[in-house]
């Protein structure tokens, strides 16, 4: 199990470093999110040892004037160590950036609700990597499966979800363009 866990972490590190982060830094965040592939934001932190800027893509949810995300690998995640050391961060959402402060969610009900929203917004990842259906899982089972997950809250007063955020409809245009492009090459 530990070997698969390590391979999964390394795979995410490579994909994030060479694809997701460069795409966001180039301004391509709006075309990357969908209900199927998941909605991604990038957290810009300061390294806890080096002080260098670090970028980490994560799935997210917006609710109650807050942005939520999870540290699926828990306290061993380098980016969580960075946030623990320096909670002031910048969130690169698909169409805007926000400076805010990270807080660990300690309230059980808020944690569970945020966890479900983030898992729903992760698209296929909850089914494949989490091994559960976030729409149908019971509250007890969700608590059990995600007990080691850390849920973070970023307070952003006045923030509302935009057309590229979860619940928005603008994901349809890039997805339709991608399908048309694939069909054009195949046919």
Features:
Pnp Oxidase, Chain A; 187 residues; alpha+beta; seven-stranded antiparallel β-sheet
Give a structural overview.
By secondary structure, the protein is of the alpha+beta class. The chain has a single domain (2-186), classed as Roll (Pnp Oxidase, Chain A). The chain has six helices and seven strands. The chain has helices at 2-25, 78-85, 108-121, 124-130, 139-145, 172-186, and strands at residues 40-46, 53-59, 61-63, 66-71, 88-93, 96-104, 150-155. A seven-stranded antiparallel beta sheet has the order 2-1-5-6-7-4-3, with helices on both faces. The longest helix is centred in the N-terminal third of the chain and has 24 residues, at 2-25. It is globular and about 50 Å long. The mean pLDDT is 90.
Secondary-structure element pattern, one letter each: HEEEEHEEHHHEH
Overall SS class: alpha+beta
Taking pLDDT < 50 over at least 5 consecutive residues as the criterion, the unreliable ranges are: none
Number of self-contained structural domains: 1
Question: In summary, what is this structure?
Answer:
The protein is 40% helix and 24% strand.
